Amino acid sequence: MSRVVHLASEARPWASTGGLAEVAASLSQAQFDAGDDAWLVLPAYRDALRVAEREGVVLRDTGVHGEVRLPVGTWAWRALRADAPGRPVVLVDCPALFDREGLYHGPDHVAFADNALRFAVFVRAALAALPRLVQGPLDVLHAHDWQTALAAYALATARAGEPPWTAGDTVAPASPAWSQGDPWQGCAAVFTIHNLGYPGRFPVHVAGELGLRHVHPEGLEFYGDVALIKAGVVWADAVTTVSPTYAREVRTPAHGEGFDGLLRHVSDRLYGVLNGIDSAWSPARDPHIAAPYDADDLSGKAACRAALLAEFGLQADASTPVFGSVSRFAHQKGLDLVADVVPDLVALDARLVVLGSGDPALEARFRALQATYPDHVGLFVGYDVGLSHRVEAGADAFLMPSRYEPCGLNQLYSMAYGTPPVVHRTGGLADTVTHASPTTLASGAATGFVFEHADAAGLRWAVGEAARLFRDAPEAWRALQRAGMTRDHSW
Ligand code: ADP
Ligand code: GLC
Question: Which ligand is nearest to the Cα of residue 409, counting in written order?
Fold first, then answer.
């Protein structure tokens, strides 16, 4: 049994903008289910308090509270614990920083000006609270993305005998006997990079405001600014990314976002560990979908397909391929390529259902496409968990043409739901989807369609391959579905 703590800026169902929320929730739960004493700590956002109320979960005041004292001010916090089954969940309640609409930005899409401060306070409060909540020495502190990277910095600099970054903070009640002295002494820090495209880059004066030393190229400095992701990469005992291919890619200039030199430098403690998916993503027991099904009996999937088409007012007979996509509208995801190939999908007489939100220009472009091709394109602009399950279950194939993808979860959900994914060969997509070639179809290894170049021509080719196999080779298509459904996608 290990005692493991995850610090994350989001976790389902409390607060969620994407894959990090899924992974923080499902990895900690999977460790707990495997017998570890695994904990999850996140900020008590206004949204998280709402979720608790909606789901009838009591947030109990643990009695552990304190103050974080930084050069720019003092922030009071208290630790709440969710009274719910599963691994323990702690929410750090600091209303001055987290009681507002939005996780990282307001409704105007402008990032909060105090984001660095918000997460620095969260990390310091969590480090103060945890020794008073867990029952003995911690083995692993697992920090995710730039928001919590400073946890690795705090542990390592204290261990190196430097003045602790957390000096001056207060916390009550007194620490239990096992944690007298440095409670983090024997604890290893693991830092996971979920997406190098979000490095937590801030003007250099932020370092002074947060009391951070080490503003130099081997430390936190990044091209004249500071990048908080470096607090994790430089100081964690182990650094992971979320797939083996992405772990290789980030060491190249093409994918390293300016950090490739540093990541090559830490190669001996950089690992690619593929994400798993939550056991709730199973078509056999998904409360969001019209009918259950599994690899042995796919008949329920036809009902899910009919329900999805009805929901979007589309019509398609059984031989018409229905493509689905669920995504953030961000450059990374290549949804603009999906928009580019809509005329090709129409020419193939296929259908397309898109769920997503983000880039306003792309939202407008899909709205225009939907208006131009109302019989072929279904669109919902927004974030809707239930609908994301209905798209995965109801579509025949799933489009995920990401320009880069550290791991990606939707292609895993797609395979689990018998909805072969069409993906660009990059990152975790390359690691998880096996292209349907004559050889892989014959051997039973094929699970989807993989194209080489992230451009409209690449996606157009792969969509054509998928539509052809779907229409002309129903038996091969069944085999493709079953191969994805029977793979182990768990942690
Ligand atoms: P990323 O974290 O880069 O966005 P992932 O594939 O790892 O990509 O995870 C995305 C997660 O967010 C998935 O669980 C997906 O279902 C969910 N998601 C993305 N967009 C939406 C949306 N518009 N509505 C509901 N869920 C969404
Ligand atoms: C990031 C990545 C995505 C990954 C997710 C969870 O959001 O963009 O590829 O699956 O984190 O690790």
Answer: 1
